[in-house]
Amino acid sequence: MAQDDYFFDLDEDPFDTETTTTEVVAGNDVDLSAQKFPEITKRFETIPHEHFSDPNYYKGALADEGDIAKRVHTLFQKYLGATDPKDRGVFRQQILSAYWELLRGVAKKTVGKISIPKKFMLRFNILHHNFVNPETKEFFAKLVIENELKVPVYYLDEWLRAVGMGTIKPSTTDEVKIAQSNHQMKLRQLLEKASGKLDGAKTLLRGKGQERSDLEAAIMDNINSITEHYPLEDFDDVFANYTDAQKRSIADIQELLKCLLKNDRELEILIRDYRQAEMDVQTLQTKVADEGGEALVDLRAIDSEFDTVRQAAKMTIGRQGNHFPVMTNEYFRCGPNDIGYRENIVSMLAKIESIDPEAFCRVYRNRLNRIVPYVLLIPTYGDTGICWEPFDKHNRATSRGRIIIPMYPKNLYIAVLSAVADLRWQVAKEKASYYWMEEGLTGNYYQWFAGQRLKGDIKGYFIQDYILWMTKESEGVQKVDKDVRGAFWRYMPFSKEVKEKLKTRSYVYQELYQRDLNRQMSDGY
Q: Which one, of 403, 432, 422, lies nearest residue 171 by Cα?
């Protein structure tokens, strides 16, 4: 496309315009007790907005950004006007660093009021309204802007705002070590640990309370069964003795009552632990407040998080991928189903969870808790999702992990699967700690890996096998090694529905299914 098709208004000054502003609101956090993703009833707005058709969109994106905006503007002029491929390659490389520096300045505006063009520049990397064709503009104009699903899936502008406002803790960096000398930082870290302990106590209380309700319901069912009597023949006022089933119910009631008393003793301890954790949090909150409290806006945190995001973006793209940071017709090749907008990502995460029901679960005090990770969507042409943090090191009990997914990959489902696989590996490895090469999921996989004399990154092999596990093996197509299949079946089990389906497909799966039954009979699995 010719240069003039993009910059039809270059004679005007794009840096002195007033822009309409709107406030970005990050998605609300979700209840950790939720057992599934919300049902998606709305993927697109009925009427698309007209921001991408606004002739002043480009000027609004660059307005008030100073010299770096002018540099980006000039570089794009040269890039689009260049006819020599070598010159074009040089300008393309210069755009990479200049544009990211432009985004750094825009990122700091997310904590205040930010113009729509700047917001969409961060969210979608749509810099110029004429860089993309009308069909693409219309598609993005129909996307739901706010987080109506209330899920921890964030666009980049929402994420940076949440970090700057303190809603989300910044990603772990080396700077945390430097801050250890800061007394207030130490207090905040203690508060985070105490808050995590309190969240864990709440989770255990809810679980123990539900256990009591289940026991009481079972006792009532058995009582109802033993109070049903039928009159003897010829005796309307005399009832038959207990049946064998009713006698079993009486025995069951005795065992259930013992379990109920044990539950009550454990509940008493958990309530005491919860009250203590609550007091610890209140005490630390008071100390933090006495030290000056949390800053309302932390621009340094945004700067640090922006550097983290940029590094993560490179990892999702890879050394040989397309690192061009702006959406243009030249590089954008995604179909509607492979664009990583929020609703599409939630749909894919729900699909993954329907096959691998423990994908987002972690064990805390022998209880399996569903903890959906934070999901950051970054507008790059990468093909690989990654796990940045499996959980907060100051709160291993209930904190969310962090996965990052590129929005414009060749295959979005594979990109999401790779991020979940990375999360799976890191959580299992952290759980096994020093014994990660010997125990559990990572231990079994490592022993197979070593036995095969394979070289390279073991996690990379695991991710590829997980993708095969979810896309092929779940459909009965045998693609992974026999030993890997056995380890995955044991430590990353398919849902009951998938297992029931697979056991009829092949003797291989039937044998694995029988092993499950044997374990349940021998040791409760």
A: 403
Q: What is the CA radius of gyration of the chain?
A: 28
Residues 195 and 277: their CA atoms lie apart, in Å, by: 8
pLDDT in tens, 434-493: 999 999 999 999 999 999 999 999 999 999 999 999 999 999 999 999 999 999 999 999
Segment among 144-153, 185-194, 327-336, 406-415 with least mean pLDDT: 185-194
Closest among 78, 229, 106 to 164, alpha carbons compared: 106
- By residue count, the chain amounts to 525
d(C-alpha 58, C-alpha 9), whole Å = 10
Measured distance CA(137)–CA(129) in Å, rounded: 8
Residue 202 near residue 367 (C-beta atoms within 8 A):
no
Tell me which amino acid residue 268 is.
Answer: E
Please determine, for residue 194, whether its predicted confidence score (pLDDT) is greater than 90.
no
CA proximity to 436, closest of 513, 491, 399, 506: 491
Which of these, 455, 457, 424, 454, lies nearest to 442 by C-alpha position?
A: 424
Q: Please state, in angstroms and as integers, the Cα–Cα distance from residue 25 to each residue in 47, 96, 167, following that order.
A: 21, 28, 11
Cα angle 144-150-154, degrees, rounded to a multiple of 5: 65
Q: How would you write 358-420 as a 3-class SS string?
A: CCCEEEECCEEEECCCEEEEECCCCCCCEEEECCECCECCCCCCEEEEECCCCCHHHHHHHHH
User: CA 431, CA 477: separation in Å to the nearest integer?
Assistant: 30
Residue 375 contacts residue 211 (beta carbons within 8 Å): no
Residues 95, 98: Cα–Cα separation, whole Å:
5
**In angstroms, rounded to a whole number, what is the distance separating the alpha carbons of residues 407 and 416?**
10
Residues with Cβ < 8 Å from 477, sequence gap 6 or more? none
Burial (CB count <10 Å: 0-12, 13-18, 19+), residue 520: exposed
Which structure tokens are listed for 500? 């029931």
Which SS3 state, helix, strand or coil, does residue 374 take? strand
Angle at 336 between CA 332 and CA 339, to 5 degrees: 60
